[in-house]
Amino acid sequence: MAGKRGNGEGSIHQLPSGKWRAQATMNGQRVGVVAKTHKEAQE
Questions:
Q1: Other CB atoms within 10 A of residue 24 CB
Q2: What is the reported pTM?
Q3: Which residues are registered as beta bridge partners of 35?
Q4: Least crowded by CB within 10 Å, which of 13, 18, 22, 35?
Q5: What is the pLDDT along the chain (43 residues), one digit of tens a residue?
């Protein structure tokens, strides 16, 4: 089971393609990024 992320840190999950998506709220808008690895998505 994955650990809980802190408030304001957004979320990270794996897509069916094997890539990772990170999402966070910045200035009231939901922003997302797709990366090849979990570590890249965290940055």
A1: 15
A2: 0.74
A3: 20
A4: 18
A5: 567 777 767 899 999 999 999 999 888 899 999 999 999 988 8
Contacts of 21 (CB under 8 A, 6+ apart): 12, 13, 14, 15, 32, 33, 34, 35, 41
Determine phi and psi for 41, rounding to 5 degrees: -70, -30
Residues in CB range of 35: below 8 A, 6 or more apart: 19, 20, 21, 22, 41
Domain-by-domain residue ranges, the chain? 11-42
39, amino acid identity = K
Q: What does the angle CA 31 – CA 34 – CA 32 come to, to the nearest 5 degrees?
A: 5
